[in-house]
Input
Amino acid sequence: MSRAAARSAWGAWVGFESCPGLLDRLVEGFPGPWTPLASVPVPVAGPASEPPGDGSRAEGRQGPGVDAAEARGGHGPGSEAAEVPVFGCVVLAARTPADLRLAVTLRGLVPMGRRIRVAVAETPPWASPPFPVTGQGDCWRHLAGLTIGRTGQGWHLDALFDEPAAGGDVLAQVVHGLFGARRHLAQPVAGLPPGDAAWRPGDANATLVPAGGPVPERRDAPGCDLLLAGPPYGEADVAGPGGFPPVDEAVVNPIGFRQHPSSPVASLVADGPGFAVVSGGETLVRLPPGGEVTDVDVARLRETRALAVPALPGRPLVAARLVAALAAAGVPMLAEPDPARDAALGPDLARALAAVLGEEVQDDLRREELSIRLRRSALRLHGSVPRWRETAGAAGLPLPAEPSVSILLCTRRPEMIPFAIRQMERQRGVRAELVIGLHGLSARRTAVGSALLPVTVVEAPAELPFGAVLNRMADLAGGSFLAKVDDDDWYGPDHLADLLLAQLYSGADLVGSAAEFVYLEPLDVTIRRRIGTERFAPLVAGGTMLVRRSAFEAVGGFRPLPRTVDGQLLQAVEAAGGRIYRTHGFGYVLRRRSAHGHTWRQPVQSFLASSHEQWRGLVFNELMEAAVPHGRAEVRTWAGPR
Amino acid sequence: MGGSPLIPMNDYGVLGDPPALGTWTPRLSVSVVIPAYRAGATLPLVLAALDRQTYPAHLMEVIVVDDGEEPMPALPPTAPRRTRVIRPRPGLWGKASACAAGADAATGDVVHYLDADLVPFPEHVEAHMRWHHLAGCLVVLGRLRFVPGLDVVPAGEVLAAIEAGTLGKLFPDEDGTPQWTEQRWDETDDLRTAGFRAFSVTVGATASLPAALLRAAGGMDRALVMGEDTELGYRLAQAGAVFVGEREARGRHIGDSTVMRREQDVKRHNWPYLAERIPVFRWLRAHPNRRYLVSYVEVVVPATDASFEEVRATVDAVLSGKLPDVVVKLVGPWSRLGGGRRDPLGDPALDLRLVRACYEGEPRVSFAESLPEHCFPVPFRLHCPPGWTPGRSTIGSLVKFADRQGLGVLSLALDERERGGIVHARLERMAAVARARWCAGPGDALDDLVHAMFGTLWDAGEKWGLTRADAPPPPSPGRPWALDADRPSSARASGGGSPVRRPLRRTARMIRRRLRAMVRPT
Output
């Protein structure tokens, strides 16, 4: 590898298609010239690889293009030793964190430099500052100085090095800092031309393929497992769900959802070649003609009660991309019927979309229910992880297994076990096993079987502290996630699936629901508490904690105490540098029983003091889907708040 | 009245539209009660109009209560077949007395009060009666127009119009003056959305109600000379009544009413009477500290198993509240306290005895052996466990909140007992409880009915300032030095106080000393 003489400056941008004027003011002291990052030529190094056999082309993307066979053939000029350009200053500008994620996929295009500057024009309020998280890369060894500063609504990072550092590595590690490291499905390895980065957002492990050129080889391995190639998106006919780039769930997701929005329904309208969201004569957001939606756009729509979306005849994929992204973000949409768009969205999401009606979004509770249904189906169908599984699976590649969940259910009350097992058997869309801890009970005298879930039973003497029993149970659990559930609370059928989804988009080490809905048994009243959800927060309901196994083991599991083990785990995870995310509370109803002499419980009065809605009797929201009633409580329908 | 339809608040719209006039089969009998005083000229017109009602004659009787100084001459020739004239007992006089006497004599299922100068249209009684066939707790009010007196339009002309069925042509709707209540009808969808205030438009000129409901509310108050209909409306509401404005029960009031001619004088006359009797007219009770005939809230404190100190703390807190018209009912086995010889300090019933002794001279506190089912016509009842004390404005805020939210019952959780059960206070709207009783079938839980019609709510007592008697008062925000200085001097003696706060404390002491000196110059 030889280095060319250091040239003065290099600048590239991502995401400024619709507002190029913004660039001039963004990076102080850098007059240009600017290049769009995706049009930077792929540096060619070493001999091209032999991609794996047939069927490596992405499904659903027809037509001529960079074919695997073609890619296999050529040995381009200069392939023996690529000349890595070195610059005095390398500047990368991204409009939003979502664009930074795209840039990560293209990190191989960023040259080396002695000064590397990364600018983000705007970030959503929930995003953290762009602190780099150093990984294996040795680029930071020669760091001479690092400045991170606010610029208007965005951030500017300026790193100085004694020796030229790889700009792409710096970029990837800044994005790890923003969204968390170790959280992307990086295999099977994708190969793609730079223009198709949107199909693998945030994939720092992707191999960039030069236009028409061969797939560059990796160290002792082929360059990629699956080559993404096809006509530019938007030209293909709609043939079933998909056909448009996936939603990057790390940036376009329900984080920041507002339960009680303050603005009325807004509308999506055509605005030049692109789109705009207008509300009462004010333009909230402008969207590019391709229908890309970023986290910043979503953040601007958070106060909007719902978005009226017209049919876009002739542009079904653009419409579907827009709608899928907004649905993944949980923005309630009143969508005009559009059969071609709905075909691209898939029947599940189309149904969830059609269920959103104008009068229903006026009620905050109902609006949130509809939003949750939209998020679920959009993220499960069009999120970049499920889409990559779908694409790779259809190409015949062996896939890593879906993450599995071990449910930890510890009880002292044998009479509650059948009820608790039934609720876990109802869980949909997850691979789960059940670990039942009998705390002071004998397995011989307790019925703990399940026909639907694999069950492991752990017996523990009554004198063992509760936390220690849970740790013993976790020892025997085989899942990559541990979910703690309580024996007397109610769970909706999507409880675990929603937690996994929240884990996927938040990247948190521990996720949980808010105990928003509480049944106060002594009063026979169901309340809803005012708890902020869809945000990073230090507290979640103890009966809803889902923790990444590695994080659980890193902190040493539960504290061996007889009670308050939940709070102690949360504190430990936070203290170890983990992040805790609180998702919505619509899949969980906490049961506050009568006080039982010895155990301290949160007083009924304090539950009442924090409630803002109340129903008589035990009442479930729609997402609980007629949860299993138990005991004396009688289910009544919701009659609306008075 | 088991299984009656559940009417939320005053929204009788849930009953659906009543049957169209002339298309249904009546079942209930009605007694039209006409209090007559110096009505010699108009009464024949009213009776003639009643003789032409569409309501079946065999289900209708007319009782004219002759309240004149001298007995009236014989009935006019045109009058319903079943018409009686009665005289109130000697010494009784006035419209209220006449109405009460008429209701006493009535035999019908429904009593229909009609003024002696109100000429009803032929379907007037039928329009009233169709509602009473739908529910048993309705008070139906007719719609009338004031038209020129007989000095302008001669009686013969009116009589001819009645007999020809052309009353509407003689006195067209748009020429007459509507009653003051009609504006309220317009604003509230004929009282459907009037809520708890619906009763205040009860006008006796044409009002009908089930005899049982009238009895349950205690009948007309004979002590009143004017404003008796409003007061009756209030008590009917407390008995659970729903008020219906019926526009098709049309009538023509011959000549002006006293209210129209001398509104200010009528108000000046009525307000002192109504202030005593209608506690929910808060604007009539501006005085900060006096009692009234009917109190606003009755606070019930069970004293049986409580210590003297607990009961006293609760009662004293209630009596020092900002609401002046609150009374306390102490429930306990008072009859057990004999006057016989006893060991003064070793008396097993000592606490009860001290409670009774403590409030001997307090007229707002009464003693009851057991809790009566209701406190009619007091509109609210607050059950407060002994040992828990409401703040000065607690009761007033609770009542205001219950009114704003349309609540029938507001329960406040205070504490949880070791062996289960919630210590709680409970504010009951007696009108809601009475309505629930009225509607309850066998096996119905009253609270369920109250919830369905008015709503019930649980809240935390602390939020409303209802705290344990021995609990320290909450720290006043923003003045930490005030608290600090009140604390015993242990911190100061041990030198534990933070050095930063010490000068603050000294300043506080100095300020307090100066203030004291200003208030009490020695």
